[in-house]
Amino acid sequence: MNKNVLVVFAFIGIFLCGAITGGFVSVRYARGLVQKKAVEQMTAGQWRRISDLVDLTEEQREKIAPSVQQFVKEQQVQRKNAQTLAEKLNADIEAVLTDAQREESARRRKEIRESERLWQRWIKEQRAKYGDRPPKPKPKDAPRK
Predict the structure, then answer these.
(1) Are residues 53 and 46 in contact, defined by beta-carbon separation less than 8 angstroms?
(2) Residue 56: is it exposed, middle or buried by C-beta count within 10 angstroms (0-12/13-18/19+)?
(3) Residue 16: exposed, middle, or buried by beta-carbon count in 10 A (0-12, 13-18, 19+)?
(4) Splitting the chain (145 residues) into consecutive groups of 10 residues, what average pLDDT does each group show?
(5) Could you tell me how far CA 85 lies from the centroid of its own chain?
(6) Domain residue extents for the chain
(7) Dihedral over Cα of 44, 46, 50, 53: its sign
(8) pTM (2 decimals)?
(9) What is the pLDDT of residue 108?
(10) 3-class SS letters over 122-135
């Protein structure tokens, strides 16, 4: 019985070591792949919206593709710059705050992030439900149920 327990613990230990190592390796090396995938997804989403709105031909798609890809790349650079500036601003502000004010600031930032997350989830649900276009408003004279 003791040998079986030791074997089970050995397998669990090997599994955990592999999972931890795999996690570190994926975080270290897969970050670039994830960013490239995000660009592709963003471009695909933009393509879908443009195509749905104006029914592009293949020739038009070929002409527009470089512009969309360049826009996505420049937008990512601007987001990174804005994030860096925001982090610097927060660090400068926190350097002046008292400990109690820092805690309050951190709590409020957490609330704002949570609120933004909930809004994004709601928007995603609405798009899944209604598509990219909002639902048509009901006429005022419509009978109520």
Answers:
(1) no
(2) middle
(3) exposed
(4) 74 79 69 56 67 77 81 87 91 90 91 93 86 66 60
(5) 20
(6) 2-96
(7) positive
(8) 0.45
(9) 92
(10) HHHHHHHHHCCCCC
